[in-house]
Design the sequence.
């Protein structure tokens, strides 16, 4: 069977994105001694060297061979925007001229008891997305192709150069549905979570899905220990279908069953992402339904203020979506807490640069 066009990465092979064992095999296939793979791996992920010619542990002829046969950098910074609150939005160019975004958020969550010190990178997994969520600017861009594991890992390595402090957390919540690019995402995760690279711990790695049930079950079967988040956004099947067409394929009860299976196997709590839309999902009935869902297994609920996406000129149902008022948002959170739900509030980081995670769009065409 022919390989789907969007998965092809032509030209020199990427040097980044290969977990160690695979990297050793790749080097052997290229006639390079296996132990050299470990040296290049360490230089890339531990010493963060981007240029093989700067890897002085390698002899000059090997540096030359690698520079000729491999592509060292998988993403290149094209544009960097910085928000007043310190949020940074990166526009990265890929080998084929397409572009993706990553967003670095200095302190993503604001809890009642203070401001956690963390720097979270919101990572893209696909160029565009074909799931068509009504509230999402990325949905206006068609899916062009999956990102390779090298392109996923390199978003972190390049963004780190522009961060004063180490990036502490990653969340697969940028452009694309990570479950629809499962293998590449998990290979990248293996590198991020490798203790030797000291990049990001599994407990600080979150995969956020729109509700792709086979992916949730696969994560459970494979015993993945990263965190799982569901973009929930509605407490009824009717509204969820309107907001997120994927809900027609995997209805809410089926997604909830899959999450319960995931919890039973992994014993990991699950996060519900919940964007509040004025008059649509912010009622007393929503509080009660959401609380019931949140009590089914250990959960946290991230309440997210809606960031209007007028710049994409939405039409139809998308044009009707409005943010809940700050007073109503506070009431909703208070009510959930009264119902014993563990609630977090996602801050509006980077709103002045259109950097709200899950609502990314490009001013550039892709
Ligand atoms: S919210 Fe996520 S899954 Fe939905 S269209 Fe946007 S990028 Fe795709």
Sequence:
């Amino acid at each position: 069977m022919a390989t789907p066009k969007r998965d092809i990465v032509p030209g020199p092979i990427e040097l980044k994105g290969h977990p160690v064992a695979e990297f050793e095999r790749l080097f052997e296939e290229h006639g390079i001694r296996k132990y050299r793979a470990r040296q290049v791996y360490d230089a890339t992920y531990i010493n963060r060297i981007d240029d093989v010619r700067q890897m002085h542990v390698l002899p000059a002829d090997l540096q030359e061979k690698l520079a000729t046969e491999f592509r060292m950098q998988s993403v290149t910074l094209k544009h960097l925007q910085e928000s007043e609150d310190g949020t940074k939005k990166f526009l990265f160019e890929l080998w084929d001229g397409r572009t993706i975004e990553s967003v670095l958020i200095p302190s993503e969550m604001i809890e009642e008891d203070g401001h956690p010190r963390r720097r979270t990178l919101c990572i893209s997994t696909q160029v565009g997305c074909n799931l068509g969520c009504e509230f999402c600017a990325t949905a206006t861009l068609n899916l062009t192709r999956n990102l390779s594991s090298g392109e996923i890992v390199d978003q972190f390595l390049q963004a780190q150069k522009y961060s004063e402090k180490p990036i502490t957390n990653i969340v697969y919540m940028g452009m694309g549905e990570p479950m629809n690019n499962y293998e590449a995402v998990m290979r990248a995760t293996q590198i991020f979570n490798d203790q030797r690279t000291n990049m990001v711990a599994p407990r600080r790695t979150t995969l956020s899905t729109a509700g792709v049930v086979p992916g949730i079950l696969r994560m459970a079967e494979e015993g993945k220990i990263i965190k799982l988040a569901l973009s929930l956004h509605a407490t009824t099947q009717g509204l969820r279908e309107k907001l997120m067409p994927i809900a027609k394929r995997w209805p809410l009860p089926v997604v909830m069953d899959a999450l319960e299976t995931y919890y039973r196997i992994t014993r990991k709590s699950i996060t519900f992402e919940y964007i509040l839309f004025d008059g649509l999902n912010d009622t007393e009935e929503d509080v009660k339904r959401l609380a019931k869902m949140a009590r089914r297994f250990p959960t946290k609920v991230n309440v997210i203020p809606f960031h209007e996406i007028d710049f994409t000129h939405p039409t139809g149902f998308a044009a009707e979506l409005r943010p809940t008022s700050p007073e109503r948002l506070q009431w909703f959170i208070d009510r959930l807490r009264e119902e014993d739900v563990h609630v977090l509030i996602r801050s509006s980081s980077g709103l002045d640069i259109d950097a709200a995670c899950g609502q990314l769009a490009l001013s550039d065409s892709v």
